[in-house]
Design a protein that fits this description.
Layout (H helix, E strand, L loop, with lengths): L5 H16 L4 H20 L3 H20 L4 H35 L10 H4 L7 H17 L8 H9 L12 H5 L11 H33 L6 H32 L17 H5 L4 H12 L10 H16 L3 H27 L6 H27 L3 H12 L11 H28 L3 H18 L13
Helix pairs in contact: 1-2, 2-7, 3-4, 3-6, 3-7, 4-6, 6-7, 9-10, 9-17, 9-18, 10-15, 10-16, 10-17, 12-13, 13-14, 14-15, 15-16
C-alpha cells in the first residue's frame, strides 16, 4: 500500500484514532499494531504475509534457542543468519543465477535449460523483504552479542518486524528504538505539527520534484541517451541524483510523519547528503539506517579497522551493500566503487594524521572544502548512473555520451534545470524551512492545522503527474 493514495488515507484514519484510544494499554496496543501492520502488508501482497510471519517466528525461535541452549548460541545465530541470507538470495538472485548457469553450460556445449523455470522468472519480489529481514537479523544478533538482554515474546517480535510505517522501505529500526515506544505512551508534544510537516515535505519531494524529473528528464535520456545532446545527458545525470534523493527521502519523510502521528520517533535516514565533503561523510548522511546497519553487523563482524585489513573490509561491506540492492554487474560496480572510495578516504585521513597535516583555514580552507564537495558530488552522481541504468551496457553507453562533448541532439526547456536546482536547494534550505513550518503549525489550533495540511497536500498532489509513480526503494 502506497502512502500517497486514498486507500492509505482510508486505512490510516481509523488506525490513528484507535491507536490514540489504546495508548497506555501496552499489551492491547501492541496487538493492535500487529493487526494494523498485517492488514497494511496484506494490501501490498497478501500472498507474502506468511513469509513475513515466518521471518518473525524464525527470529523469535532463535532468541528462545539461544536462551535455552547458551552453549550453542554461536551455532544458533549462524543458522539464523544463513536462513536469512538464503531467503534474500532466493528472491533476489535465483533467476539471475539460474540464467547464468544455463548460459555458462551452453558455452561449454551442455544443455542445462531444464534448470530454468518460467514460474521462477515470473515470481514476484515480496515488498519490503530486505527491510523486515534486516530488522529481524539485527534483533537476533543484538541478543547474541548481549546475553543479558531480556527475553522477547513472539507478540513483540512480530510487532517489531511488521511495523507498518517502516516495513516497505525503512528506515531500519533497532529493537530498542521500537520497544521503548511501542507501549502506546510515545511522545505526544508537537506530534501533529511535526507529522503534518513531514508528510507535506514528503509529498513535495516525491510528487513535485522526483516525479517531474523522472517523467520529463531521467526516463527519456536513460532510455535513449544517443538522441540527446551532451549537456542534456549531463543534466540527466544530475537529475537522477536529485530524483533518487527526493524519491527516497520523500518516502522517509512520509514514513516519519506517519510514525510521528502514531507517537513514534523513527530514526533519521537522511541528513543533506549532497553537502558531503567526501564519501565517508556521504554515507554518514545517506540512508543512515542502512549504512549504520552494514557498519554494525557486517563491517564490525569482519573485524572493522581493528582486525584484518580495514580496506578489504570496507570494500567487501560495500560490495555486499551493492548486491543487497539487486543482482547484476551494475550493482556490484556501484557498491564496489563506493567501497574503493571509502578505502581511499580512510587511507588519506590516516596519512594526514601520521604526517601531522592540519587542514587549511580561511580562504584556502573554504576553497578546499568547495573542491572536496565538487569532487564528492560528481563521484556520487556518476556512480548513480550505474545504479539507475537498465543494464551494464546502457550505463557504459551513458558514460560515453557524457564524454562526447561534440554530440548534438535534443535538449530540455528551462524548467528541467530549474527542477534540478530546486531539488539541490532542499539540501541547503530544507532543514530551516521545515523547522519554520513546524513552529508555525504549532501555533495554530489542531483543526486549523488539519485543514491547512489537507489543502496543501491536495495542492501538491495536483502538481504531480496523473497517478503516483512507485517509490524507487520499493524494489529493494
Amino acid at each position: 500500500m502506497n502512502f500517497v493514495t486514498v486507500q492509505f488515507v482510508l486505512f490510516f484514519i481509523p488506525v490513528l484514532c484507535l491507536g490514540w484510544l489504546l495508548r497506555g494499554h501496552e499489551r492491547a496496543y501492541r496487538w493492535f499494531l500487529i493487526a494494523a501492520s498485517l492488514v497494511f502488508y496484506a494490501c501490498a501482497g497478501l500472498q507474502f504475509v506468511p513469509l513475513l510471519l515466518a521471518v518473525a517466528v524464525l527470529n523469535w525461535g532463535t532468541l528462545r534457542l539461544m536462551q535455552a541452549w547458551p552453549r550453542w548460541r554461536r551455532g544458533v545465530i549462524a543458522v539464523d543468519v544463513t536462513l536469512h541470507v538464503l531467503l534474500l538470495a532466493f528472491f533476489k538472485y535465483a533467476e539471475f543465477l539460474t540464467s547464468a548457469v544455463v548460459e555458462a553450460a551452453g558455452l561449454a556445449g551442455w544443455n542445462a535449460e531444464f534448470l530454468y523455470s518460467e514460474a521462477l522468472a515470473e515470481w514476484a519480489f515480496p515488498v519490503g523483504l530486505s527491510f523486515f529481514t534486516f530488522q529481524g537479523l539485527s534483533m537476533a544478533i543484538d541478543h547474541y552479542r548481549d546475553a543479558a538482554r531480556p527475553a522477547v515474546c513472539l507478540r513483540d517480535v512480530l510487532a517489531y518486524v511488521s511495523f507498518f510505517p517502516t516495513i516497505m522501505a525503512g528506515p531500519i529500526m533497532r529493537e530498542q528504538q521500537f520497544m521503548e515506544q511501542a507501549g502506546g505512551c510515545g511522545e505526544r508534544q508537537g506530534a501533529f505539527a511535526e507529522g503534518s510537516c513531514l508528510i507535506l515535505s514528503g509529498l513535495l519531494k516525491k510528487v513535485v520534484f522526483a516525479s517531474y524529473l523522472s517523467v520529463h528528464v531521467v526516463d527519456p535520456v536513460f532510455g535513449a541517451a544517443e538522441t540527446y545532446s551532451t549537456p542534456a545527458v549531463w543534466l540527466a545525470m544530475y537529475a537522477y541524483a536529485v530524483q533518487i534523493y527526493c524519491d527516497f527521502s520523500g518516502y522517509t519523510d512520509l514514513a516519519l510523519g506517519v510514525g510521528r502521528f502514531m507517537g513514534f520517533r523513527l530514526p533519521e535516514n537522511f541528513n543533506r547528503p549532497y553537502l558531503a565533503l567526501n564519501l565517508q561523510d556521504f554515507w554518514r548522511r545517506w540512508h543512515i539506517s542502512l549504512s549504520t546497519w552494514l557498519r554494525d553487523y557486517l563491517y564490525f563482524s569482519m573485524g572493522g579497522s581493528r582486525r584484518g585489513n580495514r580496506y578489504v573490509n570496507l570494500i567487501v561491506t560495500m560490495l555486499i551493500g551493492g548486491m543487497w540492492h539487486g543482482c547484476g554487474i551494475k550493482f556490484i560496480v556501484w557498491g564496489g566503487m563506493h567501497g574503493v572510495g571509502l578505502a581511499v578516504v580512510h587511507a588519506f585521513h590516516l596519512l594526514r594524521k601520521r604526517v601531522g597535516w592540519e587542514p587549511a583555514t580561511g580562504t584556502r580552507g573554504a576553497l578546499g572544502k568547495a573542491a572536496a564537495w565538487l569532487v564528492t558530488f560528481h563521484v556520487v552522481a556518476l556512480l548513480w548512473v550505474f545504479f539507475r541504468a537498465d543494464s551494464w551496457d546502457v550505463a557504459c553507453a551513458f558514460v560515453q555520451h557524457l564524454a562526447d562533448w561534440g554530440h548534438e541532439g535534443e535538449t530540455f526547456t528551462a524548467l528541467a534545470p530549474a527542477a534540478v536546482a530546486g531539488g539541490m536547494l532542499l539540501q541547503v534550505a530544507g532543514t530551516y524551512a521545515f523547522s519554520f513550518f513546524v513552529r508555525l503549525q504549532g501555533r495554530l489550533p489542531w483543526y486549523v492545522q488539519g485543514l491547512a495540511t489537507g489543502l496543501v497536500a491536495c495542492l501538491l498532489l495536483n502538481m504531480g503527474p496523473d497517478g503516483v509513480l512507485p517509490f524507487i526503494y520499493f524494489g529493494f
